[in-house]
């Protein structure tokens, strides 16, 4: 069982930056592939980024490549999403997710554990 708690969301102007954190409970965090997803109002949840258990491999949605960076600190049981050059289109609730595998995937249905989400709002 893994519990995930996101933090770091807020209101930022276009072009600004935010860093999201996802704190995980449990002793086996290093065995889980982690991901970030987001859901904007009236839209389906979409994939943002994923990272392998040791952190050596990453996967990004085309819409965030070059602007967002996913990372993790297994000693701290925490995953991060550094978001730069934010755009109003990035406004959404951001969720972290976990699955006990070394494979990376953008499919939300394959993630077992989810956080409650943190709101990110980018003003123009």
Count of individual beta strands: 11
Number of helices: 0
The string of secondary-structure elements, in order, is: EEEEEEEEEEE
> What kind of sheet is the major sheet?
7 strands, mixed
The radius of gyration is: 13 Å
Q: Return residue spans where pLDDT drops below 50 for at least 5 consecutive residues.
A: none
The pLDDT mean sits at 96
Q: Find the structural class using helix and strand composition.
A: mainly beta
Q: Tell me the helix content.
A: under 10%
Strand content: over 45%
Give the N-terminus to C-terminus distance in angstroms: 40 Å
Shape: globular
Characteristic key phrases:
mainly beta, 0% helix, 124 residues, single chain, four-stranded antiparallel β-sheet
3D architecture notes:
With 124 residues, the protein is mostly beta strands. The chain is 0% helix and 48% strand. The protein has strands spanning 4-7, 10-13, 18-24, 33-39, 46-51, 58-60, 68-73, 78-83, 92-99, 113-114, 118-123. Strands 2, 4, 5, 6, 9, 10 and 11 form a 7-stranded mixed beta sheet that branches. Strand 4 and strand 5 (46-51) form a beta hairpin. The protein starts with a strand and ends with a strand. 35% of the residues are buried. The model has no long low-confidence stretch (mean pLDDT 96).
Task: Write a brief structural summary.
The protein is mainly beta and 124 residues long. The chain has no helices and 11 strands.
């Amino acid at each position: 069982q893994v519990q995930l708690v996101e933090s770091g969301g807020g209101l930022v102007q276009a072009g600004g930056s935010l860093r999201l954190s996802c704190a995980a409970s449990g002793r086996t965090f290093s065995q889980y592939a982690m991901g970030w997803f987001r859901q904007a109002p009236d839209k389906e949840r979409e994939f943002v980024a994923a990272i392998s258990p040791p952190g050596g491999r990453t996967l990004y949605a085309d819409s965030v490549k070059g602007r967002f960076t996913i990372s993790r600190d297994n000693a701290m049981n925490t995953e991060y999403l550094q978001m730069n050059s934010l755009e109003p289109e990035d406004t959404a609730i951001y969720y972290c997710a976990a699955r006990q595998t070394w494979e990376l995937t953008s499919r939300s249905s394959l993630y077992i554990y989810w956080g409650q989400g943190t709101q990110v709002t980018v003003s123009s």
